[in-house]
Write a structure and sequence with these properties.
Number of helices: 10
Shape: elongated
Order of helices and strands: HHHHHHHHHH
Largest sheet: none
Distance between the termini: 15 Å
Oligomer: single chain
Radius of gyration: 16 Å
Structural class: mainly alpha
Amino acid sequence: MHAYELFQAVKPSIVSDMLMWMRETDRNLYKTALGGLASNRKLRLPFLQKKPVTEQIAWVHKNLQSKTSNMIAEHLLQVYFMQGQEALLVTFCDALDIPHNGKGQVEGEIPETLDAEKLKAAIDALLEGNDPALVTLYLRTFNLQTPEGWSAMTDALDSDERLKLS
């Protein structure tokens, strides 16, 4: 799945939470994303900024579902998980014995393969106390970090009934 396809499939509340987090914690990122999407649609940023926040977020979500917005969509997902969902990254890296900086940022190279048993344990740990749709979005975003994804991750995402985006 591409990033824009993730935005097509994920439940809107996850996207709203993500965009509100960006708007509240990194106004420049939010404004840049809004501006980039506006530019893709040949709109001026001030036109969108005048809309109420709920309309902005709905508009952004709709436009992140477009193939032409894939790069912006992937960037927003990466920033959100790296900065806004550090606990998910730490839990995941720890369960897979992936060296990281204590905040989930991988140190060195991302492993070429993922151990299926450790991955299952990582997924179980992530699902404890987290919205399964958010966990699934994270895992699918992580799987975008290598061109073909990891086969163990892809298999888990396709076979585990708990890992649905909506």
